[in-house]
Amino acid sequence: MTRSPLALAALATVAIPGLDAYDVRRPSGTGPDFDEAVVIDSVRRRWVVRAPQHAAAGAALEAEIALLAALRPFVDDGTLPFAVPRTEGFAHLPEGGRAAVHRQLIGRPLRLETLRPGPGLAAEIGRALAALHELPTSVVEEAGLPVYDAAGYRERRQAEVDEAARTGLVPPSLLRRWEDMLEDVAMWRFRPTVVHADLTSAHLLVAEGTVTAVLDWGDAMVADPADDLSWLLVAAPQDAVDAIMESYLLRRTELSDPHLADRALLAGELALARWLLHGVRTQSAEVVDDAVAMLTELDEHVHAEAEAAY
Fold it and tell me: Does the keyword Transferase apply (predicted)?
């Protein structure tokens, strides 16, 4: 069941006593598990209302709410140099579960192409990610979200590669590359940290040269910190990547992870494998074709880099 923006606005007025809804808008890019809208009240405050579409999404929302509550003290004391959503009200749903409402946070989605080297926004992103990865893992554990040790996470990655291989749609040389990296035991000696695990430009808000907020914490876990760096290493301008990593490493207390960047690049490559598997599971020929095209392009890029190295 998909709820209309007006139905979501009605839920917001139940969740926040006294909220006088003036306008409502559905944001772009919402996922398949939640109905979401931005409600503007009579004094122009903006509220985000999220309602789960099924029981599993409802359980995930409850875990996310618990995590956000645990993160709040770290935001308030400055340990985390950015805001996170603060749930301010709930509305019970007729089918069970509840919708959650929070104030819309300040900032705009990061545009990677605007990043520049030096002590500006790129360095602030590195600082923000380092602060996230320095949090005590208990905040995730107590919210009931997944916790992996290094060996268990390596096994998870191996299972993804095995499943992708069974589709017969991954270039064989890419599979060999991934297998070699997974078999390199030294690469997988790392200290698991709190990770957001779904960092994208849409989930990282910026304003005036700094990170203002991080959104959508439902995939958070204790796992490999390289996962939160992978999208930046793959897509950001290289000179900005250098600034991000320098700032990040300066603020991390874990300094014995020489393969962090290697695992981050692997995580970026395996994101294509997961996109392929999503297409296969949902029987979407369009997604499968898109994933195969990107995997082929990646394979060609890896070959070109290897040849240039000789």
Answer: yes
